[in-house]
Amino acid sequence: MMKDINIGLIGFGTIGTGLVKLLRQNEELITKKLGARLVLKKIADIDITTQRGVKVGKNLMTTDAREIINDKDIPIVIELMGGYEPARTFVLEAIAKGKHIVTANKALLATYGNEIFPAAQKKAVDIGFEASVGGTIPIIKTLKESLVANKINSIMGIMNGTCNFILSKMTDEDKMFDVVLKEAQRLGFAEADPTFDIEGIDTAHKMAIILSLAYGKTVNLKDIYLEGITKVSREDIAFARELGYRIKLLAIAMLKDGAVEARIHPTMISSGHLLANVNQNYNAFHIMGDASGPVFLFGQGAGMMPTASAVFSDIIDSARNVLNGTNCRGPLRSISETDMQQIKLIPMDNVETKYYFRFSALDRPGVLSRISGILGKYNISIATCIQKARGKKGAVPIVMTTYKAQEKNVQQALKKIDKLDIVQGKTILIRIEDDLN
What we know:
By secondary structure, the protein is an alpha/beta fold. Helices cover about 35% and strands about 25% of the residues.
């Protein structure tokens, strides 16, 4: 006889609606693959009157999430409400009741994961969070399972579809940032308040989760270096193209002598690299394992149905455990929570990479020598130099790229250069990563 497994959904927004649609759409397929029927027993949301485009019986709806949490016949709770509270309280209460958790809430896990994951391990319940990073891309399972025997030497990711859409449009259609942002908002790729996306905060949440999986250690979100994309201009995109690069908001993790670089910032990468050609609202991950070599994952990083697909992968995992009478088959975050330690992050000042500078300088004799002289004093070697519009009155752009240099030296040199009487405004800096395999 076919067994029923009850699930409860807290949060009936975009992803929650997609989840219900997917269950209805592929119910027969899901039942065959699982060997049991998934039954959506209850949906909790503060708004139970708005139409979502999918029919749900009134008896399934409640405004009280604890009807799900306290129901002994619901072994799997799906949290899709987002935010910190009351999501954190509901998740911890459900764990205390011995229920498996499935969530897409990256902000919650990045901020309170060091409280939630140990609580789940103690109660021997699952936490599925594939949908919290990369939408439909199976990055969580890849790091936890497929690459489990690898030392992860590096991860570089395009983790925010809004930023990628904006930079792609600016690059391919020569549009200004503000114009493309409004277009992204109109198309639903950006929120009315886009701060979390364009300032890189959303990417930082995802990066914190990725670091814990890749290196089996906890991380303080505030220790991840972060820059958004608001200062990227059409002028810099044009110079990047001339130099053979495209600009992407990259999340970068690199293992170096037992410590890890963790930084998020606009980055110039070779126009021929796979990551450079991930456009529109897509996400991608470039992982380098010591045994696997390069692994590239690409797909929809957000959206109703892609994210619902990722949520379902975790529901099925927990449902199979329920069927087999097993709990918490493997570590929730790569290794046991009792073995987790604080990750050692390399200070940004000590990071070494290549750089792009754009100076706004007066077109006078000796300008280049004064700028290059200061760079030289701080051990910064120039790789290329572009100077345009000679003979024009006022300031003209001077663009330089460097060989590898230390961040601390670069920042000190630019402070000196920006004080020169021949330089107007603050120097534009964009980091370059062109050693990718």
